Amino acid sequence: MRPIRSRLTVPLLTLTTLTVALSTAVGAIQQAAAGPYRSSTGLTLRGGATLAPPRILDLGSDPVALSRVVEEQDGAERRKDTNTEVTYEVQAEVLFAKDSARLSSSARSRIATIAREISQQQSSKVRVFGFTDNLGSAAHGDVLSTQRAHAVQTLLADGLPSTVSFATRGFGERHPLASNTTEAGRRENRRVEISFQPTGR
Length: 201
Prior knowledge:
Strand 7 (125-131), helix 4 and strand 8 form a beta-alpha-beta unit. This protein has a domain at 4-10 and 64-196: CATH 3.30.1330.60. The chain has helices at residues 22-31, 92-95, 105-120, 138-158, 183-189, and strands at residues 4-9, 37-38, 44-45, 67-72, 77-81, 86-91, 125-131, 165-170, 191-196. The protein is globular. Helix 3 (105-120) packs across helix 4. The protein is an alpha+beta fold. Strands 1-4-5-6-9-7-8 form a 7-stranded mixed sheet. The chain has a two-stranded antiparallel ribbon with strand order 2-3. The protein is built from 5 helices and 9 strands; from the N terminus they run βαβββββααβαβαβ. Helix content is 29%, strand content 23%.
């Protein structure tokens, strides 16, 4: 069993969206100087003052985007879950030999596992995107990433109903996840991403 690590990511809310009725609080404090009053909560106020009604803070119209990331210890595969979709990022070295678009035998079992989840989630649309590092020409990277994306898509389709549609594309060296100045960064950028939207999200 491959070791994994997990983390939760919650984007910061802008402070401008948090509104608090300070004037209500100031009014209650001013009234508190006149005389005692015990509220239903047991809080003692003065001069007949009452507690202000509860208010809901305005957090804006957009829901908070919560994402969960599960990654293998060696970083070879990463799964991202958000409130809208699931994305698998699989390093190219796990799937292909160097400069090749032919899937390895170990890659087939990984992709078959992902296909089973897509089927269980009853997803009808799947995106398969290929990416490379910046070594070699940009044109070669575009061709190789496209060929790799199509190879993964073909194997996924073998394990899915014919009603599932695919969007398949190679981006070459565009959209890197890490710096291409180190081998570790280039390894992270050489990848195939498989994304799908589970039913009900």
